[in-house]
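Researcher: Let's try something more involved. This one mixes different molecule types, so please make sure each is placed in the same coordinate frame as the others.
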Amino acid sequence: MADDEIILSELSDDELVLQMHDDLYDGLKEEIEEAVNLLIARGWAPYDALTKALVAGMTIVGADFRDGILFVPEVLLAANAMKGGMAILKPLLIATGAPRMGKMVIGTVKGDIHDIGKNLVGMMMEGAGFEVRDLGINNSVEKYLAALEEEKPDILGMSALLTTTMPYMKVVIDTMKEKGMRDDYIVLVGGAPLNEEFSRAIGADAYCRDAAVAVETAKAYVARKHNRPNV
Amino acid sequence: MIPEDDVLTESGVALRGHGRILLIACGALAHEVLALKRMNGWDHMDLQCLPANLHLYPARITAEVARVVGEVRADYEQVFVLYADCGTGGLLFARCKELGVEMLQGPHCYSFFEGNAGFLERSETEFTAFYLTDFLVRQFDAFVWRPMGLDRHPQLRDLYFGNYTKLVYQAQTNDPALDAKAEDCARRLGLAYERRFTGYGDLAIEMTRMAGA
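Model: All components are placed in one shared frame. Result:
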């Protein structure tokens, strides 16, 4: 054993949480899983383990990605490590009735198979307390509408990576308008070639340039929606 | 003189002579543009290439193209931009329109090399294909393998490419060595392989029009 090897079980709670932030940053999935199990064994509420250790750690990763310090491969490794921790916490969160922020249906649009950004958003939304139904890739308008009908979410999230597929978001929104259901949902869109102007032009509520922005935007819109008087 | 691929990828190159037309192109198109110029005797068109690796940060393409247009405009009768949309989400098109310069039609070089109309039609059924051109096959490690971190973290491969089914090598030229390299790229990505000869596609048509301007 190397002299400088860190034994997670020997760390205090505060040290362990800071170490988890480092391990998330370095994409160390096994270490994160071990640490999550340690926190739970020490009597931590699953929600605290999620927010103070995993989400706080991923927030640092997200900020460094935004600032050009970290790049996509490192973010993916961090996300994979967080996913390991989330898999342990998810059933515990459900069992303990952790706070729910709202519900989101999310998917990549028809003709597009790119899901890395969409998966990151889904994971960070779950971390922020949203229930997420992930429709996967290549979703037709019919599939989106069926999921909205079934799940009755607060938010519809659509993702596209291609210039050729991003116009399909407008097809979905226009169909929602035709059916008189557009205003029942917050519509968030994202993907590399998108921008604010495109989001406005197609009638979405907001463009989210990364997963952290998606979470903040979702929280703000859901709070606004819940504060809206019934008229 | 054909510049080295590393130069075209990293820093771009200005091949400016005494032409009255300047083509501002992505470095990834340099070989094809120079071949068309040579084949057609278009000595009245100069070429300035921006670094091809701008594609790793598509948000920077529009500003960089606009900067070069501004720098060179007074030196030429006509300036054309040899970029497609290239992931700029319409911003490059809008900026070129503002600047009064024409650019290529289509979403990407994958599209105009095949012909935009055919590519669009095929995209309905072929959206699980990952495309490489001659340049991208030669620069596969610089454009795909290293930027995606696959040299350091090979376990990420299926996260990136798990939804793809095949690699299509759109060949601009008939080169058995490139064909073999492209097939090896497909193997490294865990994808089926298909070679499709495209030649220069819509690039030749567009350049012919520009040459007559």
